[in-house]
Amino acid sequence: MKVVQFTIPVSKEHTIVVQEDVLPHYYNHLHRHREVQIEWVVEGSGILIAGNYMQRFESGEVYIIGANQSHIFKNDEAYFNPEEKKQIHSVSIFFNPTQLHQNILSLPEMASIRKFVDGLHNGYQIPESALPLVQKTISELKQNKDSMRVASFISLLHLFSTIRDIKPLATNNSEQIISEVEGIRMDQIFQYLVSNYKRHISLAEISEISNLTPQAFCRYFKKHTDKTFISFLNEVRVNEACKIIISGKFDSFSDVSYQTGFDNVTNFNRVFKKIMGKSPREFHKDFRERVG
User: Fold this and answer.
1) What's one Pfam family the UniProt record gives for this protein (predicted)?
2) Looking at residue 1, what is its pLDDT?
């Protein structure tokens, strides 16, 4: 199954397609496809952008990407350095919800699963408490063939439908209607911001990258992400700051501020707390207490 810009060809001979990859890094461009994608990040880390959602992803996590929801699993810089010898390991499950409705979901016994599938537009993150059972079920599905694979798939959807604290990703569905040309433009914008977040990026600079006037760019970006350019850039920076804090590879919070592109530590502390709900120091303390 080759991933191309905004299109994934899926075999018409199968209702469920399972793909296991071990690669240097994830596909590095914003893309979408008509299939729902269940993604188990067996090994890997970076930033996930899905619609207007953005957050770090780590090894062991499981996500559901909605049909036609533009997304990118953007790996950390180290994955693009051959000397680091890092790799990602993923198990992806693709299914077309329309096709599923025409056969499996049409059964009356599938009412609760049908309701869950109908609500997948914006995607979900599986909570940590449910991960062991979800990972076990995905492993069984991957090993099974034919009718047993379908049975495992139904079990997985049933499991998803019973998780009470499942976390939605994007908060709106408007960005799904963007054209392929707009999608390529958004990809160029995201790639530039994620690659250059460590330095000052002016509105004039990013507008030029997107071939829009500053005023038009602001409207365009807000329309497709439901965020301002500055708030998106700050989220990228804070997500990277979280990674540094968790790694413990910093001398001071002022050092973290400098590494992630903030102009001063006061602004860094203010923005971090606004996005994460706690200060960098509190975040560090809470993480150390969790890991013991």
Assistant:
1) HTH_18
2) 32
pLDDT per residue as tens digits for the range 30-42: 888 889 999 999 9
The end-to-end CA distance of the chain, in Å, is 42
Q: Give the DSSP per-residue string, 115-166.
A: HHHHT-TT-EE--GGGHHHHHHHHHHHHH--HHHHHHHHHHHHHHHHH-TTP
Query: Is 62 inside any structural domain?
Result: yes
Residues in the chain: 292
**Residue 268 located in a structural domain:** yes
Q: Are residues 163 and 194 in the same domain?
A: no
Domain boundary (168, 190, 224) is at 168
Q: 124 in a domain, yes or no?
A: yes
Say if residue 129 is exposed, middle or buried (CB neighbours under 10 Å; 0-12, 13-18, 19+): exposed
Residues 31 and 53 both lie in one domain: yes
Yes or no: say if 221 and 232 are a contact pair by the CB < 8 Å rule.
yes
Taking alpha carbons only, the member of 162, 148, 34, 23 closest to residue 90 is 23
d(CA 201, CA 3): 30
**pTM to 2 decimals?**
0.86
CB atoms within 10 A of CB 238: 24
3-state secondary structure (DSSP) of residue 20: strand
Full domain range(s) for residue 233: 178-291
* Class of residue 181 by CB neighbours under 10 A (exposed 0-12, middle 13-18, buried 19+): exposed
Q: Each residue of 167-222: pLDDT tens digit?
A: 999 876 544 456 667 778 888 999 999 999 999 999 999 999 999 999 999 999 99
